[in-house]
Design goal:
111 residues; single chain
């Protein structure tokens, strides 16, 4: 009965919230900075750099903050995001072959 579980998650007793942001739009990035992460859309190196600048300015850093980038199977995370992205989420083509999905998931991210 004297069980203590830890460590506690930074957001407390709720799931983490990630907010989508198109490009480097400041309002969605400021909103995402108040929570646990961002799922940026329509990225390139310049926009990604401004995204990082905005989040760091709002939070003081990237600690406990996720950046989830969309990739396609076999596509590596863009070089400009390798140091800061925390998740690569595969965008699957319509009606993917379940065996191919299993193979990609078990193999892990491309180098």
């Amino acid at each position: 009965d004297d069980v203590l579980l830890g460590p506690r998650s930074p957001q407390g007793d709720r799931p983490p919230f990630w907010f989508a942001a198109r490009g480097d739009a400041r309002k969605p990035l400021r909103r995402a900075s108040c929570y646990e992460g961002v799922f940026p859309l329509e990225m390139d190196a310049d926009r990604y750099g401004r995204l990082i600048e905005t989040v760091v300015a709002e939070r003081g850093g990237l600690n406990d903050f996720d950046i989830a980038l969309s990739t396609t199977p076999g596509e590596p995370v863009a070089d400009y995001a390798r140091e800061t992205a925390t998740w690569a989420i595969h965008a699957w083509p319509a009606l993917p072959d379940t065996d191919a999905v299993f193979e990609i998931v078990t193999t892990g991210p491309p180098d």
